[in-house]
């Protein structure tokens, strides 16, 4: 496995399926964890988690953290992108552009 580079940024998203009565506690844990944030959710117990980190190992740690939470049934990786630090700091879409 190649050595992690300070010039890399890994971005990933996961769907976490949990018991609905555990959803709030899982959201709290995710939002307390550096490099993680919550996205969309459903009352049925599904939650999108977005992660970013300097190496692929960080993403594996994220899966382990999420799967270890009480009430989590599964954690599925749905997106993974590797980009350079320069790309990560570059605005890909000009949101101020007028049409």
Structure characterization notes:
It is built from 3 helices and 4 strands; from the N terminus they run βαββαβα. With 99 residues, it is of the alpha+beta class. The protein has a domain at 1-53 and 71-81: 2-Layer Sandwich (Alpha-Beta Plaits). Strand 2 and strand 3 (46-53) form a beta hairpin. It is elongated, with a radius of gyration of 15 Å. The chain starts with 7 loop residues before the first strand and ends in an 11-residue tail after the last helix.
The helix tally amounts to 3
Strand fraction: 35-45%
Described by strand count, sense and barrel closure, the largest sheet is:
4 strands, antiparallel
State the low-pLDDT regions, or none: none
Strands of the widest sheet, in order across it, are 2-3-1-4
CATH class of the domain at 1-53 and 71-81: Alpha Beta
CATH homology group of the domain at 1-53 and 71-81: Lrp/AsnC effector binding domain/regulation of amino acid metabolism (RAM) domain
Q: What is the CA-CA span between the terminal residues? A: 46 Å
Number of strands: 4
* Element-by-element helix/strand order: EHEEHEH
The CATH architecture of the domain at 1-53 and 71-81 can be given as 2-Layer Sandwich
User: Overall pLDDT, averaged?
Assistant: 85
- Secondary structure class reads alpha+beta
The shape, in one word, is elongated
Radius of gyration: 15 Å
User: Could you please say which CATH topology of the domain at 1-53 and 71-81 applies here?
Assistant: Alpha-Beta Plaits
Helix fraction, binned, reads: 25-40%
């Amino acid at each position: 496995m190649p050595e992690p580079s300070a010039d890399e940024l890994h971005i990933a998203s996961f769907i976490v399926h949990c018991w609905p009565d555990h959803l709030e506690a899982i959201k709290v844990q995710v939002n307390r964890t550096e490099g993680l944030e919550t996205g969309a959710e459903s009352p049925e117990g599904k939650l999108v988690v977005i992660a970013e980190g300097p190496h692929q190992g960080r993403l594996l740690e994220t899966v382990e953290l999420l799967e270890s939470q009480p009430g989590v049934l599964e954690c599925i990786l749905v997106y993974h992108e590797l980009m350079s630090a320069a790309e990560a700091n570059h605005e890909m879409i000009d949101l101020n552009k007028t049409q």
